[in-house]
Amino acid sequence: MSGEEPLTQQQEPEQVKKPDEPPPVAAPAPAEAKPESGSSRPAAAEEEKTISYRALVLTGYGGYEKIKLQVKSMNKSQLKAGEVLVRVKACGLNFAELLGKQGLYELLPSPPITLGMEGSGVIEAVGEDVTNRKVGDRIIAMNRHGMWQELAVVPANRTFPIPEAMSFEEAAALPVNYMTAYMMLFEMANLRPGKSVLIHMAAGGVGIAATQLCQTVQDVTIFGTASASKHETISQGGVTHPIDYRTKDYVTEIHKISPKGVDIVLDPLGGSDSQKGFSLLKPLGMLIVFGAANCVTGQKKNLLAMAKTWYNQLTLNTLKLMQTNKAISGFHLGYIHDEELFKMTLIKLLELYQQGKIKPRIDSCYHFEEVAEAMKRMHDRQNIGKIILLPEPKKSEEKPKSNAEAAENAEKNEAAVSEKKEEPAEEVETEKD
Amino acid sequence: MSGEEPLTQQQEPEQVKKPDEPPPVAAPAPAEAKPESGSSRPAAAEEEKTISYRALVLTGYGGYEKIKLQVKSMNKSQLKAGEVLVRVKACGLNFAELLGKQGLYELLPSPPITLGMEGSGVIEAVGEDVTNRKVGDRIIAMNRHGMWQELAVVPANRTFPIPEAMSFEEAAALPVNYMTAYMMLFEMANLRPGKSVLIHMAAGGVGIAATQLCQTVQDVTIFGTASASKHETISQGGVTHPIDYRTKDYVTEIHKISPKGVDIVLDPLGGSDSQKGFSLLKPLGMLIVFGAANCVTGQKKNLLAMAKTWYNQLTLNTLKLMQTNKAISGFHLGYIHDEELFKMTLIKLLELYQQGKIKPRIDSCYHFEEVAEAMKRMHDRQNIGKIILLPEPKKSEEKPKSNAEAAENAEKNEAAVSEKKEEPAEEVETEKD
């Protein structure tokens, strides 16, 4: 399932960080070079030649310096049946990569490994037996890892066409956060009109996705924790009761507003927060634990934080559950292997996007060279919405796109898309048919 | 909430078991004795007199002999505001009473206590402030206990008018079993088209209710455990795959048919069966434990069975839940205190009944004198459907209604209702307006 396994991997000893240089990427094959637009095989011999591309590789566990920007090379003809080659335009940063960097994400193979679970881009080549994707298609791609690179090989069934109006940044922000929120709210829990939901880290990627999805159901009350500076934004986004978890006890605050508690708790924190979440549930309510963010304190693995989170982990027997009429569940997208479920969920999300009911909020965009800054921003909980990584090399004069600027871009997709068409790295888009 | 607390209780030293005698119950006040049909107060002084009635009282923990048929007396004028007096026509037997008899049902006050959580009958008097019920209404009544008596005092908001076509036996069979099944399937779990459900004890009261409710949703696959002799009946009732748990390992059998397992497990057994149920769940599936039937082996409290059930009780931490994407929950109707939820659920169930989508299956009807036989039948898992207790004294020539006869009655409600009208104890029905 790895996008890089079939490829020749040339790891450079030193981190590549040359933002001023042109991208070391071969020009895409022009569309007219293909004899048949529907053909799935490289037609001309010159296409067989090796192409190089940049990738963000985790080289060991530890601090940000363990993630290195490296140049790799591959041969398009190595594409296997059922695979597609994607020129990646934008990638999503997830909490899983913060955990992975510290060696705490058990689904990530040992380093060296290219990170990244989601991205968007344009299909540059298709392997045998791929009939539903063609060169030039704008797509969302998901993979177990390996999306943080300019060129990624992914199974065709893990790619999904994106609507015209959706920017690459939005597309890269959608899969992990929105699928997680959707499956939790509508597959595991049973969100219906009139219910109440506690969303921790309500300004984070899953938090904002969950807030938007809650609003697709009538009369849902949303309690959202976030630091005070983010309250205005999350209120505008739909959080009914923002709570500053840094200065107030959220259990007390929620009980003041709703003495009986809440119906659903989405808990990415783990440890003692799971216990508090359980105590907050109304009868017939459900706590969904989907992370252990409390484990991540500093930059490196913190054994004390881990032990504390583990020790305080909610452990319940069925008698206690019966006496309280409550449900607990765990959710981890990485352990879902049902391709049909992935597909149906993403199709549903793209429909909701087109109906204007959901819209990924982009917090900021960082070039690959700035990955440490991007991760630090998430680690320090500074983001409101999704942090995006851009494979395109940073231009020397360019300021990092973040905050207000990125938010503005997210609100003006079409403008953003047309703007990008002027940039050289976006030439591949002209291949679209 | 007890129906008997406000009443004078005259406990007889010996068990009353005189089926040949006429019922020691005062004749109901004729409707025309009331000056205003809407009046909620006893109008005439003669109504104030003490009336006596029969009740099934748990006198201590142990075998069937601990439940005694006693004659009590009360004064109608003792009715408090918000209460109604119900002449009970039929009562439901639940597993909770088997547990209660052994001292294993923690919600039941200490003996002596009148048993019974559900019943049906006719309203004989209404207390102050009761505006939505009137004398003569045919109703379902629920209470924490105290329904196994000829006259029961219950809060008016725990009574629900029953449809014309519904017999008293059906009405008494509905509340506990169908509310339990409904809340589990539609409030806790999220039963939707195409899902699969494992129903243990599929021929029991909750089992049959759950089977019928599953069929209100399209394409639900039902696995049901029951002994082989019941398979034909439960198949006809809608169980897709009946499994004989006595001769086969149900985990193996289910995996043969559905290698990925099931979406929902309804588990009234507890102990090691909860562990098996959890192992059978598909990702995003839910195990609902709603009993510990495995505790009940013999007639009396069995410490070994309890210890074994307790020891094998499913205990999970959130990490395990995350890694498997599963949910566990507990359900216990006795711990639900949300009156609005009760009301809405029962109204929904009565709608489904009137639409012909659900219909309680009566296994057998026993008179109060035969309560030991009734409980033994449930304890030995001989029933298919609900066991009903009738306050009406047994006539000497009458055979116990059971099995085929009772099933026939259940299919011919109207016949059953009209038949009962000929019996003297049913005269109260003529009060209906």
Automatic annotation (TrEMBL), chains A, B:
SMART domains in UniProt: PKS_ER
InterPro entries, sorted: ADH-like_N, ER, GroES-like_sf, NAD(P)-bd_dom_sf, SV-ATPase_mito-regulator
Region (Disordered): 1-46, 389-433
Domain named Enoyl reductase (ER): residues: 62-389
Feature: compositional bias, Acidic residues: 424-433
Keyword annotations: Oxidoreductase
One Gene Ontology MF term: oxidoreductase activity
PANTHER family from the UniProt entry: SYNAPTIC VESICLE MEMBRANE PROTEIN VAT-1 HOMOLOG, SYNAPTIC VESICLE MEMBRANE PROTEIN VAT-1 HOMOLOG-LIKE
Descriptive protein name: Synaptic vesicle membrane protein VAT-1
Taxonomic source organism: Crenichthys baileyi (White River springfish)
This protein's encoding gene: VAT1_2
